[in-house]
Amino acid sequence: MAKFFYTARSLNGEIKKGTSDAKNIRELAQSLKEQGMILTKADTEIEKRNIFRTSFLSGKVSITEKMLMTRNLWIMVSTGLSLVKGFNILSAQSKSKKMKSALLDIAQEISKGKNLSDSFKKYPDIFSELFQNMILAGEESGTLEDVLKVLSLQLEKEKEMNSKLQKALIYPAILILTMLVVGVCLAIFVLPKIGAFFSGLNAKLPLSTRIILGAGDFFMNYWYLFLVFLFALVFAFLAAIKTKKGRLFIDGLALKIPAVSSLVKKSNAASLIRSLSSLLSSGVPLIRSLEITAGTVSNFYFKEALSDASKRIEKGEKLFNSLKPHQNIFPYGIIEMIEIGEETGKTSLILKKLAEFYEEEVSDAAENLAVIIEPVLIIAIGAAVGIFAVSIIGPLYSVLGHI
Q1: Mean pLDDT, rounded, for 305-319
Q2: Are strands 37-44 and 2-10 parallel, antiparallel or unpaired?
């Protein structure tokens, strides 16, 4: 018997919440039906506790934490250690409170006879759909050890690619932050004093000087409007990317900007190919693999391409043919290599090699983008300093010269 927290609706539309003991949800639904109620939602006591944990435990579990957990679990399974003991050890090793709590609960679920894949499904915010389906495939085929090895490699490559992208873009980010800090400091500490000095002399100032001083005064007096505008802009952007039209526009723009499109195409292609390769090598069917992989890519057009491909394959088409209508978003050569893989029966191996190649390409593309951004930002900083010198320091020297 389990204790259920349920929500039910009566025939006249009244909503009722409560708790009840039942063997399963079917028995609970039947019991409520006899009372003239229709069950709409039910959670066990454990599931309720998991919702609490998900809501209140701080932060997300890092990819490093998941990678180490998967690698250690693979080693434990390969040595024949029981899963219950393995998860207790992994929980003790984990630095994340969220991961520690999840692993302890998984150990308890397995000790009660629950499957490993079902236990992972309780924590979708930690273990992705790709992760869950690969574990399920490993359990069903008896190749859990091999699947865990593939998963640990998948997470390691994902971490490596993210790390390279972050390192390549960190310098431009520092430059932009420095520009913003210097601009705010000038607006708060320098421009008001210069403006007061010019006002006291009643000097006639050039238009550019008046614009800069006016902007400084506006920021000092109405800085809260600037913050409101900034928050509104961020909110509008986040709201836009949640709509289909907004997502289409932003993702389409990313594929058209010359310096950015190469990085977007290669990063999405690398993630797509690596995930597809891992799923196929674990024994997950092709159509299901495409559906899961669609959830791992960030760009809407890549998601659409994979969804369309899965529908075409259901009708009997091959993978390379189903992707051809979308070849404009894929880097050159990918679809041709997939065709070779299908003809030779080595699709999974070809995809693995392609993933390794494009992960390196992503690293190079990120570095090239950083190389382009850095001089542009330096020129922008130089131009800002030049405009400030001409607009403020020039008139200042001119006024002092007349005095």
Answers
A1: 90
A2: antiparallel
Cα distances (angstroms) measured from residue 152 to each of 33, 72, 189: 47, 9, 52
Please name the amino acid found at residue 305. A
Whether residue 48 has pLDDT greater than 60? no
Q: Which of 67, 131, 62 is nearest to 97 (CA)?
A: 62
Contact between 150 and 281 under an 8 Å Cβ cutoff? The reply is yes
Listed in sequence order, the DSSP H helices in 242-346 are 244-254, 258-281, 286-293, 300-314, 319-323, 334-344
3-state DSSP call for residue 153? helix
Strand order in the sheet with 2-10: 15-22, 2-10, 37-44
Q: Residue ranges per domain, the chain?
A: 2-45, 55-156, 157-403
Looking at residue 58, its pLDDT comes to 45
Same topology for domains 55-156 and 157-403, yes or no? yes
The pTM score is 0.64
Q: Which helix (H) or strand (E) element contains residue 183? A: helix 144-185
Longest Cα–Cα distance of the chain, Å, equals 97
More confident call, 130 vs 87: 87
CATH number of 157-403: 1.20.81.30
- pLDDT value for 54: 45
CB 191 within 8 A of CB 383: no
Contact 396, 194 (CB under 8 A): yes
- 8 A C-beta contact, residue 161 and residue 363: yes
Fold of 55-156: Receptor-associated Protein (1.20.81)
